């Protein structure tokens, strides 16, 4: 079986927390590659997002030097809300039956999983790898209580107190974002005057 990681997110903007956990899962699970999928119209985020084009460009800039990272427009290209179940089904069609998908998810999102669209079905057709995140509990009890059939594994990863929200706030306040995201992403944000 081929093994492919999926890193979904709004990436508004992408930062080293995203890159580091994607690399850790790639390494631990011997994945062929990790596909970063910027979300188009995320059902769980109601704040105004930076345009999908900008978020895609920054994701590409941050990942292009890594030969086993890829960026997909699969969710941006779809009209209507982006549901992970639709994305995984489309990828399964593209890659065929000999590919297993590993969806990478931060600890902050685990408790939201039961609200995801068609989550029962999703938990059966896709593996989930949950990674640590500071200030968030890292436990599966809520999933275990609600779903009998699921495949979620917890992976111990270094914890980085980094978020896109913090980056956006730092830029607004005029603070440096050096080392929190890549140099190319910083340049792009400056050039496009994002988050001011
Ligand atoms: P925002 O603050 O705008 O919500 P974010 O930093 O949480 O941004 P997202 O694009 O929402 O980034 O997250 C995409 C995925 O990456 C989610 O599964 C999230 O849990 C995970 N993630 C983001 N930052 C970290 C981090 N520092 N450590 C571990 N996982 C992270
Ligand atoms: Mg988030």
Question: What report would you give on this structure?
Answer:
With 196 residues, the protein is of the alpha/beta class. The chain has one domain: 3-Layer(aba) Sandwich (Rossmann fold), CATH 3.40.50.620. The chain has eight helices and six strands. Helix 2 links the parallel strand 2 and strand 3. It binds adenosine-5'-triphosphate and magnesium ion (MG). The site of adenosine-5'-triphosphate has 18 residues, from helix 1, strand 4, helix 4 and helix 7.
Write down how many β-strands occur, each being a DSSP E stretch of 2 or more residues: 6
Bound molecules: adenosine-5'-triphosphate, magnesium ion
Low-confidence stretches: none
- General shape: globular
CATH topological fold name: Rossmann fold
Order of helices and strands: EHEHEHEHHEHEHH
On the 0 to 100 scale, the average pLDDT is 92
Helix content: 25-40%
Task: Describe the secondary-structure layout.
Layout: E1 2-9, H1 16-28, E2 33-38, H2 52-63, E3 69-71, H3 84-95, E4 99-106, H4 107-110, H5 119-125, E5 127-131, H6 141-146, E6 152-155, H7 164-173, H8 183-192
Parallel strand pairs: 1-2, 1-4, 2-3, 4-5, 5-6
Helix pairs in contact: 2-8, 3-5
The site of adenosine-5'-triphosphate has 18 residues, from helix 1, strand 4, helix 4 and helix 7.
Function: Catalyzes the reversible adenylation of nicotinate mononucleotide (NaMN) to nicotinic acid adenine dinucleotide (NaAD).
GO molecular function: ATP binding; nicotinate-nucleotide adenylyltransferase activity
Keywords: ATP-binding, NAD, Nucleotide-binding, Nucleotidyltransferase, Pyridine nucleotide biosynthesis, Transferase
């Amino acid at each position: 079986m081929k093994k492919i990681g999926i890193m979904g997110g709004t990436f508004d903007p992408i930062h080293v927390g995203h890159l580091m956990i994607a690399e850790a899962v790639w390494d631990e699970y011997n994945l062929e590659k990790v596909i970063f999928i910027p979300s188009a119209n995320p059902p769980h985020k109601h704040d105004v997002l930076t345009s999908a084009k900008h978020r895609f460009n920054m994701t590409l800039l941050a990942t292009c030097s890594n030969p086993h990272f890829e960026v997909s427009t699969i969710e941006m290209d779809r009209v209507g809300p982006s549901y992970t179940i639709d994305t995984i089904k489309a990828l399964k069609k593209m890659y065929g039956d000999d590919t297993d998908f590993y969806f990478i998810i931060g600890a902050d999102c685990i408790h939201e999983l039961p609200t995801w669209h068609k989550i029962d079905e999703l938990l059966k057709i896709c593996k989930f790898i949950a990674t640590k995140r500071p200030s968030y509990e890292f436990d599966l009890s809520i999933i275990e209580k609600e779903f009998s059939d699921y495949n979620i594994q917890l992976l111990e990863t270094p914890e980085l107190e980094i978020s896109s929200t913090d980056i956006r706030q730092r830029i607004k306040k005029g603070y440096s974002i050096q080392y929190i995201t890549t140099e190319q992403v910083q340049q792009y944000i400056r050039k496009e005057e994002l988050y001011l």
